[in-house]
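To the wet lab folks,

You asked to see what we're planning to order before we commit. Fair enough. Below is the target structure as tokens, and below that is the sequence we designed to fit it. If anything looks off to you, flag it before the synthesis order goes out.
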């Protein structure tokens, strides 16, 4: 795209097509109202009496040549637009040209914004640069007023997957200790004297004998076993937690500078 600083060098330059064939030479240049060059007329035919308009947003300066990405026949066959009068191009003219060259107004508007941000509105030069007179969706009113626009952050949310939770059950073995009460029998010697109560059994046997008496002892032995019992149920649930995050983004805005001859300095509207 041709920059604002290059406008004053366009007049009279030879125009070449994408195949390297000469089409003609630059006649007049049209700007978009803030100085950004948008269209140029190409003088063709004998003595350059015919003029065809070609878009500058896709053109390029290569040495002394203005090179356009269209072939010679396409440029010469562009819709007929009267380039001799001093009036700006009409909206109908521009729409016909955009349609003919297969261009998008939205793409051209983005190119315009980039040029304006680079200082395109402050061009002053010697080339006869005319206003296209066409604003499209830009909202500029022309005349003695212009619209200042700016971007604003439009923050919202979008839901995305951040992770998954799952339940998994597995068996582990651990050592436990429990205390079990146990009992055991032990021998206790009891001696009792001969009394009237036990005299009979004491004298019932022979006087002198040999004998033995045996007592069986018992004891409890701890026995360990297990049983499976349910102790609790675990399930997965979801809950929403509200929080706040701060987001940062870049926005662009247009500034309008007014040169007032009756006041000192320059006033800026932003």
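Sequence we intend to order:
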């Amino acid at each position: 795209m041709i920059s604002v600083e290059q406008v004053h060098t366009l007049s009279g330059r030879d125009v070449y097509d994408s195949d390297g064939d000469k089409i003609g030479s630059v006649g007049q240049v049209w700007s978009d109202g803030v100085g950004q060059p948008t269209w140029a007329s190409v003088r063709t035919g004998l003595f350059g009496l015919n003029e065809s308009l070609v878009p500058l947003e896709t053109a390029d300066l290569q040495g002394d040549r203005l090179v356009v990405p269209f072939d010679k026949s396409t440029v010469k066959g562009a819709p007929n637009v009267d380039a001799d009068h001093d009036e700006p191009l009409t909206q109908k003219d521009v729409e016909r040209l955009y349609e003919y060259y297969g261009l998008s107004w939205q793409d051209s508007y983005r190119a315009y914004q980039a040029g304006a941000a680079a200082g395109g509105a402050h061009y002053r030069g010697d080339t006869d640069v005319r206003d296209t007179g066409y604003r499209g969706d830009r909202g500029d009113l022309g005349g003695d007023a212009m619209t200042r626009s700016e971007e604003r952050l439009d923050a919202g949310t979008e839901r995305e997957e951040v992770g998954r939770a799952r339940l998994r059950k597995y068996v582990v073995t651990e050592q436990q200790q429990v205390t079990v009460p146990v009992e055991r029998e032990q021998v206790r010697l009891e001696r009792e004297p001969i009394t009237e109560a036990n005299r009979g059994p004491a004298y019932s046997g022979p006087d002198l004998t040999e004998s033995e008496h045996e007592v069986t002892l018992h004891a409890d032995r701890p026995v360990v076993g297990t049983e499976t019992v349910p102790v609790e149920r675990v399930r997965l649930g979801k809950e929403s937690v509200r929080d706040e995050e701060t987001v940062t983004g870049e926005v662009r805005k247009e500034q309008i500078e007014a040169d007032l001859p009756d006041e000192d300095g320059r006033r800026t509207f932003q």
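Structural context that might help your review: Residues 57 and 111 are 7 Å apart (CA to CA). Helices lie at 72-76, 91-101, 105-117, 199-202.

Thanks,
Computational group
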